[in-house]
Amino acid sequence: MPDVSKMKKPDVKLVLLGDMNVGKTSLLHRYMERKFKDTISTVGGAFFLKQWGPYHISIWDTAGREQFHGLGSMYCRGAAAVILTYDVTNWQSLAELEERFLSLTDTANHDCIYALVGNKADLTDPKAHLCQDSGVLPEDRRTECEEERTEPQVLSTCPTPPASPASLSGLLLHKQVAREDAVALYGRILRYKGLDEKSSLPADKMCFETSAKTGYNVDALFETLFDLVLPSILRKRHEDQASPTVDLEDCREGSGKRVRASCC
Amino acid sequence: MSVKAFELVPAVERHLLMGDKARINIECIECCGKHLYVGTNDCFVHHFLLDEVPSPKGKPSYSAQKLLHKYLGLKKPVAELRAASALERLIVLCDGVVFLVDMVTLESVPSAAGGGAKIRGVTTFCVNENPVNGDPFCVEMGVLSSRRRTVQIYMVYEDRVQLVKEVNTPEQPCAVSLDGYFLCLALTTQYVILNYNTGASQDLFPYNSEERRPIVKRISREEFLLAAPGGLGMFANAEGASQRAPVSWSEGVIAAAVCFPYVVALDENFVTIHSMLDQQLKQTLSFRDGHVLQDFEGKVMLASTKAVYVLVPLPLERQIQDLLASHRVEEALVLTEGAQRNIPKDKFQVLHRRILQQAGFIKFGQLQFLEAKEHFRKGQLDVRELISLYPLLLPASSSFTRCHPPLHEFADLNHLAQGDQDKVLRCKKFLISYLGEVRGTDAVNGCREDVDTALLKLYAEQDHDSLLDLVASDNCCVLADSVPWLEKYHKCVCCRVGSPLQGFSPAWGGFQEGMIFMFYSSADLIPLVRLLLLTGVHIFTRRPACKGQPEVDPDQVIAYLGKHSQALLLYLEHLVLERKIQKERFHTHLAVLYLEKVVLLLAESPRDEGRLTRAREKLQAMLRESSLYRVKFLENLLLERATLHGKLEEHDEALRILVHELRDFPSAEAFCVWASSGRDAAYQRRLFHLLLAVYLDGAPPGEARAPHGDGSEMEMAAVDLLNRHGEAFDAVRVLRMLPESWSLQLLRPFLNRAVRASMHASRTAKIALGLARSENVQLLHDRLKERRKPIFVSEKKGCHLCHNTFSEPDVVCLPGGVPVHVHCAAQRVRDSPTKRQLANSSNHT
């Protein structure tokens, strides 16, 4: 994670939320490292810095385990976008979003953008097998992925069984969450946030189905969000730099320091 | 995965503290400079002087000298000790009471004016290391009380404590840390950040403090480290957000400290060390009965129940080197860059650069060239370090020596590749591309010779296309090294003096040019040109005209070649004859050179006729073909002069010279052919007549033999001329000119030709006449046929050609009886000359 080392102050924060084993870490890996690899259950959280044009976007990967649930609202604090992730083969993972995770986003920015992402689309949807990754996945690479897919959560320290039984046979699994369900949830999220559905981003734009394994729709997801948070970055910068109101707190602190410096 | 980041060094051994008393345990420690205070469970405070003992092996050790120990008189364990060095006070928590003792005497400080330097009912307290209050002679302290859900802020002075603020909390607080106005609190069920100035509160995350001991540790300005559920070490800033990813501890962590860039945590059996930069576990030290872990001004101290230790961080550089030694490049770089804040800027830059260079070589050794290149570039590597890995690439004259200590472990490329030729090849390809990239940049300032020479050698060895480009561009290749190398790889055999001129393959031509360019930039041009004397000029003449290379300045070349006439001649020929450069200067120069050569050969005795003729032919050709040279320069050779006169259209004079002075009749004839080439037959005829006249004038009938011997010679020439070019003459005029005395026999071929030509002309004319007549008759026939019916012309009738009506009675009748305007018909005839006959024969009606 050499990106972290740069310690550039991020301009904006994105947070991935969702139940365990829905593939949050894999999504992020797929986007950042262009590959699908073994992940172990995330402990606590992790973050990546992504350079997007002139901006630094920090993307927080959170732990889905109940144990770390309490940390979620801290990660969400000041977030400009929250990616609520579920597993298309697991109805419960969608329900959990509403029950457990939605309330964590209370600490996010008031203009926070919400995206609903159904991961593991490759298990139910043949078209998600078409690799939409920017670089075409070579054939051998793909089989390699297939092998890796022996359920990444095998190594998980999590005691529960993997949420989605792997489709090693290549059979498509039953899709438990239809896109309409996600769209409906999106509507409820807006209502929960007290946002007007008409003035908010439309559901069909903000509901994604992705596959971290094949890369299907992954770039589209992140890049759509990056583009959507840009105004938020600009506003933040504007507020930071050209605020017409004098920040008394800031001034006092500054002068206080000066006094201290001169006195010793 | 492990790094050796810290070393556990004993500071105070058991015997110094409690001797053999088994029941006595260490409760708390405080370290302030060299002063170490240890609080025990039997209510003693021990004061040691802790000295770092320098050791020759670099392994740190400490010696502790006991200064004092003091019973505080409360029979309870000393729970906490904090030094306020500016006040020379120790803040002691014992038996729920906070009070002050003198740092030196350990005597309890009597309360001043009865104010009471004591705070009762205290469970724990903390000192604000970043107080908003600027007074250096007081210490701000946050105190948790056992009875109330409050946090109290006290000011501690030399002899008193003063309550300045009291903040209520929603639950019972059990751990506190303070930074600025911000209190970070562990409550019974959660962590909160509390601004004691504004009263604003910010929930962090839930935590069951009764189940597990909370940890609240200020780690930097407005940033705290907290024990989180699941054995996490969470970072939180004053806004309540997390700016670093958490580290994963064990569940049983009892204390934590930060020694940048590491988080050190203590549990029952181990000290674990995580990096804050990548959150990875870096080192684990076995440590039993761990009790206290605290950092004091950057020094991390550790206490078991019986002894005190110091966790001595290994020097950063050593850690980084260890990482590099195990090829963990990314970690090493993360560590280096993470340490930026802790190292002075200039020192950091040096360190960072070096680490990057080393990292680059490691990546290079792994053949990960992309990363290697990036590291080299960022690390501003002296390219020669890299070049020096490749045997023999650096010029012998290079003053380069590898830096010490070495940046890598490789002796050279062969060592690195272990005989794998494919690896060697890939490394070479990499160097080619790398050098190609850095060549033009500032990175190679001061070693351009080395870089260019190395690149040249690589190109030559690898038979690389860019070799020509390199040598053709402005470069600094060292000659002494390059030439043998090029010869070795058959790039430059022709450099040797005396090699045959014909031996150039076109492919080498460009390269030859390169050689010259190469020497341009080095100082010793003239010796080289001498070396290349004859062959060298081919560099210029055989050079492909394309390639977009900067044009050679011919003047410069000529100046250089000036001393070597043969080469100069070849070069000028190239310029003038092949490249057709239209510059009077070059043409004149070349003409003069030809001339000189002819003169030289003429002066020789015996004459080498063959060479003379060749030289003359060249000169004459030059004089004829070129129109740019300055004629004046050249007038001292008759033949050539004749040509000059020819140029000036003074043909009679030219021919006079040729015939009378040179008596070079073939030349005279050739002159006529040359001078009239491109002109019409009449011009040629005029010239031949002129020549004939000259011949005949030179041999007037009856005159005595001319000095050179022979009117008859002239006559013969005239006869030859007539017989050879008979068709060019007007026979009648010739016959008039010829002397009466000439025999018919003599002129037979000419007369034959003349008669034949005349006959031919006459017959051709007759045929033409016949044809014309027949056409005329044909037309008359047509006309008669047409006249049988009348042709009407009226003002209403239109002309078939222009479609206007007729206004005059004069019309022309086209075949078929179609009347048209006169002018229209004329127009048509003008447009199609074949209709001429028709127009002539048409009639008016």
Could you give a short description of this structure?
Chain A is of the alpha/beta class and 264 residues long. In chain A, 37% of the residues lie in helices and 15% in strands. Chain A has one domain: 3-Layer(aba) Sandwich (Rossmann fold), CATH 3.40.50.
What does it look like?
- The complex is a heterodimer of chains A (about 260) and B (about 850).
- Chain A is of the alpha/beta class.
- Chain A has a single domain (about 1-265), classed as Rossmann fold.
- Chain A has nine helices and six strands; from the N terminus they run αβαββαβαβαααβαα.
- In chain B, β16 and β17 (about 200-205) form a beta hairpin.
- The longest helix of chain B is centred in the last third of the chain and has 44 residues, at about 745-785.
- In chain B, strands 1-28-27-26 form a four-stranded antiparallel beta sheet.
- In chain B, α9 packs antiparallel against α10 and α22 (about 680-700) packs antiparallel against α23.
- At the A-B interface, α1, β2, α3 and α9 of A face β17, β20, β21 and α3 of B.
Note the main attributes of this structure:
heterodimer, A: 264 residues, alpha/beta, Rossmann fold, 6-stranded mixed beta sheet, 37% helix, globular, disordered N terminus, disordered C terminus, B: 845 residues, alpha+beta, Methylamine Dehydrogenase, Chain H, Herpes Virus-1, 4-stranded antiparallel beta sheet, 21% strand, elongated, VPS39/TGFA1_Znf (chain B), Vam6/VPS39/TRAP1 (chain B), VPS39/TGF_beta_rcpt-assoc_1 (chain B), Transforming growth factor, beta receptor associated protein 1 (chain B)
Unreliable stretches covering 5 or more consecutive residues of chain A: 1-7, 132-169, 245-264
Architecture of the domain at 6-314 in chain B in CATH?
A: 7 Propeller
CATH class call of chain A: Alpha Beta
Radius of gyration of chain A: 20 Å
CATH architecture of chain A: 3-Layer(aba) Sandwich
The CATH homologous superfamily of the domain at 6-314 in chain B is named YVTN repeat-like/Quinoprotein amine dehydrogenase
Pfam families (chain A): Ras
Family (chain A): Belongs to the small GTPase superfamily. Rab family.
Membrane topology (chain A): Lipid-anchor
Keywords (chain A): Cytoplasmic vesicle, Golgi apparatus, GTP-binding, Hydrolase, Lipoprotein, Magnesium, Membrane, Metal-binding, Nucleotide-binding, Prenylation, Protein transport, Transport
